[in-house]
What we know:
CATH topology of the largest domain: TIM Barrel
Radius of gyration: 20 Å
CATH superfamily of the largest domain: Aldolase class I
Strand order of the largest sheet: 1-8-7-6-5-4-3-2
CATH architecture of the largest domain: Alpha-Beta Barrel
Largest sheet: 8 strands, parallel
Order of helices and strands: HEHEHHEHEHHEHEHEHEHHHHH
Shape: globular
Structural class: alpha/beta
Distance between the termini: 50 Å
Number of helices: 15
Helix content: 40-55%
Amino acid sequence: MDIKDIVEDAVALAPMAGVTDSAFRSICMEHHASYTVSEMISAKALSMGDKKTKSLLKKRSVEKPFGIQLFGHSPDDFKSASEILEDDYSPDFVDINMGCPAPKIISSGAGCALMDDVVLSTKIVEAVKKSISVPVTAKIRCGFKDKKNAPEFARALEQSGIDAVTIHARTSNMKYKPPIDLFTIEKLCNAVRVPVIGNGDICTVNHIKIMNNLGCSGVMIGRAAMGNPFIFLELSSNKRGVPFNAPTSKEKFDVLLKQVERAIEDKGERNALNQSRKHVCWYLKGMRGASKLRNDASKISSYIELKNLIIKALELERAG
């Protein structure tokens, strides 16, 4: 599959560590996400056959197109991991994480730290491109720390064979605030010929239009989708001029239950519920009595407890 066919006019789900597991990704695809990307996968751990890492690569048939994101700092690790991915997991593309601002990732020389080493970054791209036949993309930021070098950095990646670039338009020091840097996105789009996907604070059709006007081929949504997979259907409907009916509280909880049921299939009840607590809290946002409900949600450890919490939440809604 050509990368342009995947990203053109796309509204995709961004990869988020600890969030975008198969259960959540598949729900987003069913609500009209254009494509999804896995959680960050350690290139080193995968190349060494780590079982926990392999468990992160589970996917459902609805997840297509689907990309797998690798992080690390060794070209050899990326080469080995990419070969494993193509042979055993059949992704539609492989994404290289060059944008994660987490201190633990940066301190290892991975994530956004790679933007401070153009030579190493291009070697990684070249190693992956030579190893696999599917497209290779990179997710970057405006730059490492406070240095904004995204346009020049992306141009170097393009010369090394990268097929598309996604930019979260903040530096690593900016984390997720303040507002995104639209000027850097425009400079990046003008600097390369490969498709550019815009990311950061996108939650309306107007935001998408702004990204398109800057030169982006598509957009990627992260935090705005947490607890709200319906955003993809909403934006898809708005783009087509079709009315969007916001889901009722019951409809939201039906989707939440479906998501948790899938997580249980993949991870077992205990692990799934522990990891799903944050998702439950996100689904509760804006509901009557949400503060108390979120406190209760932080303690659930079984599917029955989740169903009881939902019954309580719906009763509060009706009482209001």
